[in-house]
Every structure is written in C-alpha cells, then in structure tokens.
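Course exercise 7: structure representation. Students receive a sequence record and must write out the corresponding structure in token form. The form below is the worked example handed out in class, using Cupin (308 residues). Read each field label carefully; the graders check that inputs and outputs are placed in the correct fields and that the protein name is recorded exactly as given.

STUDENT ID: A-19
EXERCISE PROTEIN: Cupin
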Amino acid sequence: MNDREIVCPNLDAALETWRGAGFRLDSIYPADDPHTAVLTREGEQVRLTSRPDASRPTSRLPPFQPGFLLARGDSSESAGRAGMLYRDLIPGRSGGRYIASLISIPNGGPVADWVHFHRIALQLIYVRSGWVRVVYENQGEPFVMRAGDLVLQPPQIRHRVLESSAGLEVVELGCPALHETLADHEMVLPNAINAERTFGGQRFLHHVAARTPWTNFHGGEARETGICDATGGLAEVRTIRGSQIDFPMHHGELVFGFVLDGSALLDFEDGFELCASDAFVIPPGASWNICDGSDDFRLLHVTSAQLG
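STUDENT ANSWER:
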C-alpha cells in the first residue's frame, strides 16, 4: 500500500477535504484532542497529522508512575472526536499508563460516531448525568445508559455511540493513556448475540445502577459493579456514599476518585476540600479516607491491579 504523511495545521479541516475526495477514516488519535488520523482509498494510505513529532501508540504499556494528584473541576475542556468535549481528570497520565476524562455532549441528539474499537488493556465508561444510547458487538440491540450505569469495554470489542441527551456527562477511564480509535468498516451493529464471549480475557459488562442495592462499605455504602469478575481481577469500580469512609490500603496500581455530587474532605497528607467534579489519584500503599461527606456526596471509586 502506498503510504505518505501530510502535516496539516488543522486536522478537522484536512479530514473534511480528504474524506470529500473519497478517502475513508481508518483510525484517529488521541480521542480527547485528536492530532493524527489515517485514511485509505483503493490501496493508497494517507497519514494526516498536526503534530508530526508526537508519540505514536504502541502495544507496550508505559511504566506506571505513582503519585498524588488532585484535578479541580474548573479545569478547561478540549474538543475531542465525534463532537465530544473532554476534560482531563489525570493530568500527567501516571506516566502515560492511565487516562481518565469527563466527556460531555452539550446539545444531545444523534452522535457522529461509527463502529470502532480500541487496542487497550482496560477501558470503562460511567454515566454521571443524562443518558446515552449505545450498541456493542455480540450484546444484542442498542440500549440506554443512565446516571450511575457503567459498561466495561473489553479489548477490541466493536461498539458505537448512537445518540444522547443534552448535557450528557460520562467518565471514561482507560489504559494505556495513548491509544487509537480504529474503524471497523465491515461490521454492522447490532449483530448476533454471544453474551458469554470474552475479548482479551475480559467479558463485556453492563452495570445498571437502578437494579443494584447499596451495601456496607467501610463506614459508608457502595454500589458494586461486578467489574472485578468481568476483568479477571484487573480492576474494581464502585459508587460510594457516606459522611465517613475509611478506605482500605490498595497495593495495586491506580487509586482514582471522581466526585459525582456533593462535597467532602479528602483526608490525605494535609487534607483537601473536595467539590463536585474534582478528581484525585492516591499513590498505591498510602492511607487515606473521606470525612465530612455531605448528604448528597457521591464518589466514583476505581482501583486497578498491577497490569502486565
């Protein structure tokens, strides 16, 4: 296949031009601030990029770099793929190991998405507010996710975002931080149901908050999601509420929190006041807890094991 790279000052404008010339989009990255895309037409391949010196995705996971991080909810957004807005929840990306984003769609309606997949080690989507209709490979008809719902997107599962409410917000977390969105031009979704299929050793999971009871969790309450079983122990995810939660020490890699609603005190080092939309990362092996949680305090809590 003939291959050439074209440096362009504006990737969106270049994409429009080349797609208008009959090229199809095969891949684009990164999702939160796209600067590079690969397009093909009849044996010809073009790599468009506005950042020719930027790192390219690889199959190797970057080394995990632990450390404390607090990302306040008033940080800026960037324009991502398919008309979505992204806010970085893990600046520094733990050395490139993890990415977490608050993704929003302000206006709602049909989403300019296509059937695609990702070569990742871990990826999950949690709905903070609004609703979104999605469809996944071998999982049946499209379904709607609402606030508190979550999906585990195992490696390379094909999927597509179809439409959303105005003001949709989701938290997306993935490993590694830099990965491609790759189009599958042949697959049509929905396709045949195969709910027991695994992808890269993981099983698709759709957690529905309204069907999940609150259970005791270290002084507070949690809605467990089943992510641990679906990932073979790679991660755990839960929604937590309460005024005082004493978190057990975690010895894996990521310890991530995102304040869905309300306020609280993060008891770590000198203490930090938390408000809605704040995110934090705690180093593994560190002691921490939540104090003075407001009546409406809700926390998305994610931990991961030591990944290969």
